[in-house]
């Protein structure tokens, strides 16, 4: 609901005069407008600088309540490339591409060049556009609600990752480390991606194809964000508008089959999923102390000490963000301010730590009123200057919060109600009431999302990277042999494991003959020797695993002996009797024949 309060403040009221040394900030009139969770203060004021010069100023202050999120956004054209636009166009583009959100207010952001920020720029959804920070400047890491986490002079980029988001709800289903771009994927458990891939030797294979909607390539840095992918079985297309993903990881295959969008970019050290990064010129207010021009540093002493239009972001005692703009170069109406004056303004509105953003002709303040974006300040340029990014106060369709408690062993979530689905690595987790406990697993990445069942919008995302590396399993071996046509075959059966066998050979310890153990099929290698040993022989099997570890196995070959069967005792007696009978019969026949011969002779005589 919109509330309007107009306060006419008299100069003599001490409560509206703020002094620091020779600096003085005096509020003359103030209009306060509360719209959809954002309080907008429009102030006419008098500023006195260190030299005692008094000038009029128009100031806009934006504060958000607990339902408002803070993010950073850049306009992308239909090829996915960043294009400079004014803050109104950037806000419209955000709403068009994120229909579960509404932009309530916005200001311009970082310094820029042609279609790129000067400093690190990470957008809504933790999409990295630019990882670099200029030597003169800084970048701030912010939470989903705009809390200041860290100030960086340099970001550390790590290995390239793919992050998978449900195509309908944007729930984070998983994250996986990628192999180097455009390299073949054959080892189990690996995932790779292909961009502008051109190989004459490519073959037809199963993979997923994604249309790129956002991309950034700066030197060796690259990042991509896509639409929902499609499974195909064909050669990989050579394209600068598409990404192909190939995986041998069964968990990744399961996630891809659900219908996901993908973000590909390097993991940024110490920056969490859901954070954004905003480039700034300099810190002008530190722990409540207004810094000197020399200590402020930034673009230049001239830029710091001379009065210009200004844009800035500050953080109050609760680390909540406050946005500021001050018009300038409009003599008699709003002359602009130097950065010490700007620091006094911030401090007067409850800010403890304040930072200067891009100013001058870039300074723009946008409010959404009655469904329309309105430029509420008076920029020095018209048409409005186009800039590389903007800081947005946004409101989700479901602005409910999930309370989290993380211990060494678990992630405990208290949901707004039971009207939410909870996903862990893309798998729905059952729960009772509105409390969910998820056991931590230090050996795997854990992606957690909470989705409103009615609006299908994600209200909570957490990604906990693996903190420990699981020891890879090694194969176990069973050795046997076989004699085939005077050849000895040493057979080594092995179990499937995380570590592959890179090479294996077998040595006869008697004659030192060496044979390679060749792969026969999955789970079997065999070394064939051209002769069979006559005696018991020792063999040593040497192997090397994919992690470089070496080992050996001892195997003893024993001479193969013929099988001899023992005679049955009764059968032996039978054979002896038969032999005796045969001899007796034979002797009788000879006696008879001899007698007949004698008879015949006698008759002849």
Write up this protein.
By secondary structure, the chain is mainly beta. The protein folds into four domains: 3-151 and 275-396, no CATH class; 157-268; 403-464, Immunoglobulin-like (Sandwich); 477-557, Immunoglobulin-like (Sandwich), CATH 2.60.40. It is 12% helix and 46% strand. It is built from six helices and 45 strands. Strands 1, 2, 3, 4, 5, 23, 24, 25, 26 and 27 form a ten-stranded antiparallel beta sheet that branches. The chain starts with a strand and ends with a helix.
Sum this structure up briefly.
This protein is mostly beta strands.
Work out the helicity level. Answer: 10-25%
Contiguous uncertain segments of 5+ residues = 1-13, 561-605
* Shape, principal axes of CA atoms: elongated
Straight-line distance between termini? 162 Å
How large is the count of helical segments?
6
Transmembrane segments: 579-601
Pfam families: NAGPA
Keywords: Membrane, Transmembrane, Transmembrane helix
Organism: Acholeplasma hippikon
Keywords:
Immunoglobulin-like; 4 domains; elongated; disordered N terminus
